C-alpha cells in the first residue's frame, strides 16, 4: 500500500514521513486539551478556522453569516514516533454546530478518544454516536476528576450502551502515562477492527 | 479594487482573506489539503549558501517569490518555515497565527509556483498497514 507520499511519486526524493491523526472528543471542559498536552511533545498548538469559508455547507452558516469573524479553535499536539512516522492529536471543538469541522478532522483519522465525565455522561453521547455512525474506532476514556464518584468501567459501558468490543477505561488526562495508555488502546482497537473487516474498512 | 473584495461564492470577505485576494479556494486542482498533509520546501535539502540574507530562504527561492507579484510576505514565511523540516498544514497555520483556510490557499499558490510540495496522508476509508499501527503502538509504549 502506498500512502503518505507525494502524488508525483518522485524518483530521487527521500521518503516523506507518514502522518496519522487521532481525535480527542468529548463534552465541554472534559479534559481534551489537557490530554493532548500531557502526551504531546510540543505545547498544544491552536489553529483557527473561519466560519465564512466557501467550503462550509450552506446550512451551517445559518445564523452566523452576520458575524463574519466567527472562528472555531482546534488545538492539537504532535508525537514523533520516528523519522518516518508522526502522530497528530486533535482536540475537537465541543459545540454541536461545528459538526462540519468534525467531518474534516475525522477524514482519514486512525481513531478517536471519547473523553467522558461521570458527572455529565450525557455530554459524550454526541461524540459516541458520531464515531459509531462513521465506523471510526474509538476508546471511551473516563477522566477521573477528583470530586467525581468512581464507577467500574463495566458500569459505564452499560450506562453508555456500548458494544462489548469498544474499549472503556478510566484515566487521568493530566498524567502522561495514563493519556498514553488511552492512545495505545485506540490504536490496538483500530488494528482489531481492521483485522475483522479487511476488505471494506 | 473594491470589487475584488467580494467572492461570489463566499460572500463578504473577512480581513485575513485579503492576503489571498479574497480567494477561499486554492487554484491547485488537488482536493482540499488535509490538516496533517506535510508541506515540504522543494529545495529543503539544500543548505543556505554563505552570504545568505538571513531570511531562511535560498537566493533562488527569494528571487522567485519576489518576482511573482501575486505573492505576499506570508508566502515567504511559509517557505522559510518548511525549509528546515516538513511541517503539517495545521502547524503552519498555528505558527503563522493564520486561519487554516487562508493557509491552505497560500500553500496552494506555492505548490503551483513549485516552491513547495505536499504529502498526501492516508486516504479516507483506508487504514494504514498493520506494520505501521504496530510501529505506532511501540512508539507510544516507549514514551
Ligand atoms: N482533577 C482533574 N482535573 C482535570 C483533569 N483533566 C482536566 N482537568 C481540569 O479540567 C479543566 C478543563 O480541562 P480542559 O483540558 O481544558 O478541557 P477541554 O475538554 O479541552 O475543554 P474545552 O476545550 O473548553 O471543551 C482544566 O482546568 C483542567 O485542569 C483530570 O483528569 N482531573
Ligand atoms: Mg480544550
From TrEMBL, chain A:
InterPro entries per the UniProt record, alphabetical: Gliding_Motility_GTPase, Gpn, P-loop_NTPase
Record flagged with keyword Kinase: no
Source organism, top-level taxon: Bacteria
Residue ranges of the TM segments: none
The keyword Hydrolase is assigned to this record: yes
Entry keywords, A to Z: GTP-binding, Hydrolase, Nucleotide-binding
PANTHER family with a match to the protein in the record: ATP/GTP-BINDING PROTEIN-RELATED, GLIDING MOTILITY PROTEIN MGLA
Family affiliation: Belongs to the GPN-loop GTPase family.
Name the record gives this protein: ATP/GTP-binding protein
Record organism: Streptomyces spirodelae
From TrEMBL, chain B:
InterPro entries: DUF742
One matching Pfam family: DUF742
Domain of life per record: Bacteria
PANTHER family (UniProt xref): DUF742 DOMAIN-CONTAINING PROTEIN
Name used for this protein in its record: DUF742 domain-containing protein
Native organism: Streptomyces spirodelae
